[in-house]
Amino acid sequence: MARGRASDPQVVGPDEPASMPPRIRMYSTAVCPYCIRAERLLMARGVGSIEKLRVDLDPALRAEMIRITGRRTVPQIFIDDLHVGGFDELAALDRQGKLPGLLHT
Ligand SMILES: N[C@@H](CCC(=O)N[C@@H](CS)C(=O)NCC(=O)O)C(=O)O
Fold this sequence. Notes:
The chain is α+β, with helices and mostly antiparallel strands. It has helices spanning 33-44, 59-69, 87-95, 99-103; strands at residues 24-28, 51-54, 76-79, 82-85.
């Protein structure tokens, strides 16, 4: 593999290209134990920030969540454009060892 210049932001080491962390979005509400569990799991797996889309504050966001995901419960979690689903699906991915690949951690 070609070596990049030190000033090249894509190169962090002699051989490994940088891997940008994915964008994590979570449709959520203020009172939501499953949202808290999802957030804790993501943070425990190295996620630095989660964009919260508060469907309890914005009916348009709730409508958007239902339209995009076909689900009515929160959380609904996206890793970049991948719709993971709710906490149960996130936890299943974690048990299967698939989160590091998706989270680039
Ligand atoms: N199995 C779902 C459960 C999600 C769930 O029950 N969320 C609650 C809030 S913590 C909810 O959206 N309740 C409203 C409803 O069921 O319509 C998951 O793992 O995400």
